[in-house]
Specification:
Elements lengths: L7 E6 L6 E5 L2 H10 L2 E4 L4 E4 L6 H17 L3 E4 L15 H14 L3 H12 L5 H17 L6 H33 L49
């Protein structure tokens, strides 16, 4: 089998800068690194992670060791400096983001507009919906920056309040309107009927399972044009 490169990471001291760097991995690995305390560095052709500035050597070792253990606990292959190697495999618990993503799974399985409206309510409920909580969190973060003390902090606080007012409220309003339209529609989704897996009584074949058609097959992507081929004019 071909090697899946996004399941492999390196966590080492850079020989030139001396920084602790983590390279490789997919988005799940990047989330684990950031929860362990790493900072993302986004470049044009690469995203890698580094330790925060100002840490003691003991803090850097703890950070790297914890990241190695967390990544290996969920099946990543991690090469690291010897001092960061560990047999610890910390338990992993469901994250808040994973709970929110479950709404997407439910929407992909929804069979009518009422079900979709119920799911969307979790986003748009005015008191305890996800978007209301997100707006409140942005405002709490703005308050945090208001009293932090640097000259740029009031600007950051104003920017966070602007995001809450100009973006989150607009998204909230638009999705709430979408939810009300779904609630009033009372229509099944034509491509998502519920299958009970029951064979009709008049079916003569004992091998029959159910009358549902197979799911549609995805069309293969067209092959790229051969090297040197000219493109048709539009």
């Amino acid at each position: 089998m071909p090697r899946t490169t996004d399941r492999f990471l390196d966590i080492r001291r850079d020989p030139y800068s001396g920084e602790l760097l983590a390279r490789g991995g997919d988005l799940e690995a990047h989330s684990i690194l950031q929860r362990a305390g790493f900072v993302a560095v986004v470049r044009l052709h690469e995203t890698y992670h580094r330790a925060p500035t100002g840490l003691t050597e003991a803090d850097v070792s703890r950070l790297a060791t914890e990241a190695v253990g967390r990544l290996r606990a969920v099946g990543y292959h991690v090469d690291c400096d010897e001092r960061f190697d560990t047999e610890a495999r910390p338990a992993r618990y469901p994250t808040l983001g994973a709970s929110v993503s479950h709404l997407a799974e439910r929407l992909r399985e929804a069979t009518d507009t009422a079900e979709a409206a119920d799911i969307l309510t979790e986003l748009t409920a005015p008191h305890d919906g996800l978007l209301a909580g997100f707006e409140e969190t942005l405002r709490a973060l703005a308050e945090f920056f208001d009293g932090l003390g640097d000259a740029s902090d009031p600007h950051t606080a104003r920017r966070l309040r602007y995001l809450a007012d100009a973006y989150v409220r607009v998204i909230h309003s638009d999705l709430a309107h979408t939810r009300e339209r779904l609630a009033d529609r009372h229509a099944p989704h034509p491509g998502r009927r519920t299958c009970a897996e029951h064979v009709p009584d008049h079916e003569p074949e004992r091998s029959a399972v159910c009358a549902c058609p197979p799911p549609p097959r995805a069309l293969p992507a067209p092959a790229p044009p051969p090297v040197g081929a000219t493109r048709p004019r539009r």
